[in-house]
Specification:
Four Helix Bundle (Hemerythrin (Met), subunit A); TIM Barrel; alpha/beta; 2 domains; binds flavin mononucleotide
Length: 330
């Protein structure tokens, strides 16, 4: 998620979920072809399985970017056909490309030629007035004919003019049925649903209809959700307590700090770790007040743990919480 996630965020998420496929925020093909590719492409080995998301519509640039990504060993390369922002429309990429399936199919073919990793597509269920099954099917058909076998579908349309990107993630209504029908129309194609998934029961329900679920905002705001899901799907996995997750981050943070990374650029992703637990506010407040200070090191996180009330730990730091108590009490 642009402006929110980065490699530090993904490393942290990986500590919470060994199995989830982690997606990068969108990187434009131009940034990789003409910019500092290493800055956008490097990641920690622990982040696997990891998908790079590319934005663009120029098949040649997309292919060059895919080739570079392939050198870095990405497990999947994803084409963004879902982002509605003006900036992105002007560059001819994102959701507006749903109306130009041939262009996306051309990018797909050129990219897949350059990499052994599967090239996949993230899309919406429609754009503007094109809010019907035929439009979505026509788009998917063109990509399937080109060889694409995996789609992540954000289950709402994008309104390309008049709504901000943020509004485009809330105002157009979610329509999971449309995604379920897409799966029925393309049974041999992997369909991953996205949009508005915030609890395990919902994820269970959508997985009765489609092959996978992508979680965006809830994973960022309440990262422990990923651990709860991981445990649901892999009962052999021992869910770490939140404190243990913090501890596993310390050596990583120390190494990053030694390389000149600021504590805040890692700890900002960890603010939601205790969401749903008593003490969540104390955790957030301590980090927010201390992590940006000059010389701040990983001890800030240990101190933040200690700043939390000791009372609830036995209950809330080991295992999933069922009630979002900080929302109730604060
Ligand atoms: C701040 C922010 C940045 C986002 N950036 C991207 C992006 O770079 N690429 C993308 O495909 N989707 C992006 N999205 C959309 C999410 O991936 C997801 O499709 C959307 O938030 C709906 O899923 P959710 O309800 O689980 O969050 C972004 C969302 C947010 C909130």
């Amino acid at each position: 998620m642009m402006d929110w996630t980065d490699r530090h965020c993904r490393y942290f998420m990986r500590m919470l979920s060994p199995g989830a496929i982690l997606y990068t925020e969108m990187v434009t093909a131009a940034a990789i072809v003409h910019g500092d590719a290493d800055r956008f492409l490097r990641y920690h080995e622990a982040e696997h399985p990891i998908a790079l998301q590319l934005g663009g519509s120029d098949a040649d640039w997309m292919a060059q970017a895919a080739a570079r990504a392939s050198e870095y060993g990405y497990d999947e390369i994803n084409i963004n056909v879902g982002c509605p922002s003006d900036r992105v429309q002007s560059g001819q990429f994102g959701a507006c490309l749903m109306a130009q399936p041939d262009i996306v199919a051309g990018c797909f073919t050129a990219m897949q030629r350059e990499t052994d990793a599967p090239v996949t597509v993230k899309t919406r269920i429609g754009i503007d007035d094109n809010d019907d099954d035929v439009f979505l099917r026509t788009f998917v058909d063109a990509l399937v004919a080109a060889g694409c076998r995996k789609f992540i579908v954000h289950a709402r349309i994008a309104i390309l003019e008049g709504l901000s990107p943020k509004e485009n993630r809330t105002i157009p209504p979610l329509n999971y049925e449309r995604v379920y029908r897409l799966k029925r129309d393309f049974p041999g194609v992997e369909i991953v649903i996205n949009g508005g998934l915030t609890d395990s029961a919902q994820v269970d329900e959508v997985l009765r209809h489609v092959d996978g679920a992508m979680i965006g905002r809830e994973a960022y705001h309440r990262p422990y959700f990923l651990a709860e899901l991981e445990q649901r799907f892999d009962s052999t996995w021992t869910i770490p307590s939140r404190a243990e997750v913090v501890e596993t981050m310390i050596p990583y943070i120390d190494r990053q700090l030694a390389n000149g990374v600021a504590l805040n650029s890692i700890s900002r992703h960890m603010l939601g770790l205790f969401t749903g637990c008593p003490g969540a506010r104390a955790w957030r407040r301590y980090i927010s007040e201390h992590a940006h200070r000059a010389g701040a090191g990983s001890e800030v996180l240990i101190n933040a743990l200690n700043a939390m009330p000791p009372m609830p730990r036995a209950d809330t730091m080991h295992g999933p919480v069922t009630q979002r108590q900080d929302e109730v009490s604060q």
